[in-house]
Amino acid sequence: MEIKRGIAVSPGVVPGPALVLGTEDFRIPRRFVSVNAVDVEVARFRSAIDAVCNEISENERLASERLGAQYGAIFTAHLNLARDHKLREEIEELIRERTYSPEFASSRVLRRYAKLFQNLGNQYMAERAVDIFDLEKRLLRHLLGTEREELAHITEPVIVLATNLTPSETASLNPEFVLGFATEVGGHTSHTAILAGALEIPAVVGIGPFLSDVSGGDTIIIDGNHGEVIIDPDEPTLKRYRVTRDRIKTANQKLELLGDLESKTADGVPIKLFGNIEFPEEVDHCIKRGAEGVGLYRTEFLYLKDDREPSEEDHFNAYRRVVDPIPTLPVVIRTLDLGAEKFPHSLEDLAEVSPNPVLGLRSVRFTLRNLGLFKTQLRAILRAAVYGDIRIMFPLVTSVLELRQAKMILGDVMEDLEEEGIPFCRDIQVGMMVEVPSAALLADRFAEEVDFFSIGTNDLIQYTLAVDRANPTVADLYSAADPSILRLIRMVVAAAAKKDTPVVVCGQMSGDPLFTSVLIGMGIRELSATPFSLPIIKQVIRNITIPQAEEIAAHADTLDVARDVENYLRGELKKISPDEFS
Amino acid sequence: MSTPSVCTREVVVNLENGLHMSPSARLVQTAQAYDCDITIRKGDRTVDGKSMLDVLTLAAEKGTTLVLEANGDGAQEAIDALDQLFMTNFAVS
Q: Domains in chain B and their CATH numbers?
């Protein structure tokens, strides 16, 4: 039994037989053909390239059907490459004039183009070399007639292991038969992660080389919660995971049924549930999981995914992608929340080197000192707001002055757009994250100046307990159950109530069923969490009454120590939903 | 002599990501619908407007000026159609 560790990019736990997609090293059997056979070989080439075009068309159809039109569009472009007459002409010329075998000719020509693309000095084009290699693979497969296990041909559920998963490999997969993914390379934004997220199956990427340790058919367990892949698990481990998986499956089946049910307490009080997203595509999960909108769109990935600052159009397109499927539901866009230490190269000159990045130039303070960046994002948000119910939220606001400055910049941007005659939403709602002690302590003043509060518990806990949540040596001191945190939340709720300012909780705490009842009991009526956890939260909500929740909150208020609060809440949760939480 | 058989037009690439896969595919598909020869020139490089690979190798980034040239039957219509693509920023109707 071996345990490999990687990046967990899609949650869940699943055991299953391995299907290893081998690295593509087609050996070309011969380089030259006899002069007499040239016509036959050209015909064979033409037949192969036609087959490839048909295959790509079919992939486009399948991908659009199963995974959505945006995946399908990738193949339209591939098809145009495969149909390129220059490509055919060059390959045929090598076959006719130099008696190259079709395999050799194809490989030569395609690799030449791939190299050309890589040397254009353009990041985007260099990545397109991958598409050319993909085309080469397909063509060689047809020419060599190699029987390869393809994802389209599997008939039993498998776990797919690969170096990397390309769009073409995954286009034809049947979601029914894929239990999970594990790849050697990749990160949070790799194609594998996005696909696994869309299919809601576990995935672990960035494991490093490990394929040589696995054979097709080996039993594998993917633990997408902890980022582990277990190869050839021993009996006790396997049993443990099977039990976990069955439990999760039963729970999930029950939860699926909750999708359409209303999110309200047993005594009929509505608790609004929203989804937190990082990529625009995740809005589809939100819809699927019954969210009433997007409570937090973390826009950082727009800045991290490419090596350059996103343009106004990049922002605008992403926001449109989120708002178009849900034009009548709220979408809260949080402005750039990056810390200086996370900046991609292009922004490096703007970053400061700080020993305490968590306390340094980040989030709204950063954007207030880099108005170019700030205004670009604000412009895009205001423009996109015409198409739906978009709201703006400023992160890490620590003083009223800061908030006023940010609002002033927003006002400037509105004037600019007005002058330029560009349509935008003037009466857009503006809110702030309450995630530092100063914001919570002064909530009554802040409530006068914003349209809503969003309590960012992740950072609030960090700054209140003075614990760096990224530091493993003090991780055990970080707890949402700390009485100080509960008291701050109470404070914010009370201050907001006086001004009728809505409050939503959007950190990890809101997605944890352990805290649902105490949050409601303290007066919270809106929660925003990862779509995945919404059904389970809804279940808790539907099983309690407000008086019950308030009693739980009142009792929690009498405890002094985080662990006691946690234990108490755990006990209460078991009473509320005994099946799921025992 | 009726219609001119050689037409040229200068266009500017206004796409944020330049002439990448998707617009190149549309450009080439549009060009292929016409019988005439179509070329695209960037600086001193001229490529075949009906070849996706050729067009991609131009690596035309935002702000690049390109010269479209069509020669033969339907040259005018072809140039107009291609010009339209650039003018509308390859927006899908």
A: 6-87 (3.30.1340.10)
pTM for the predicted model, two decimal places: 0.58
Q: Does B25 touch chain A (CB under 8 A)?
A: yes
CA–CA separation, A512 vs A572, rounded Å?
A: 14
Instruction: Give the pLDDT means over successive 10-residue stretches in chain A (582 positions).
Output: 87 87 60 85 91 89 77 81 92 93 89 84 75 85 65 75 73 76 78 74 88 79 90 88 80 72 93 91 86 93 72 94 95 86 50 67 89 95 96 97 97 96 95 97 97 95 87 80 97 97 94 94 95 88 96 96 94 81 50
ipTM given for this complex: 0.80
Full set of structural domains in chain A with CATH: 2-21+150-250 (3.50.30.10), 35-144 (1.10.274.10), 299-434 (3.20.20.60), 454-582 (3.20.20.60)
What's the half-sphere exposure (Cβ side, CA atoms, 13 Å) at B86?
25
As annotated, the active-site residues of A are 191, 506
Angle, CA A576 vertex, CA A575 and CA A580 arms, to 5°:
90
Catalytic residue set of B: 20
How far apart, in whole angstroms, are the C-alpha atoms of residue A99 and residue A94?
6
Could you tell me if residue A244 is left (phi over 0), alpha (psi between -120 and 50 degrees) or otherwise beta? Answer: alpha
Contact status, residue A329 vs residue A347, Cβ threshold 8 Å: no
- Pick the residue of B29, B46, B50, B52 with the most A CBs within 10 A to test the interface with A by mutation: B52
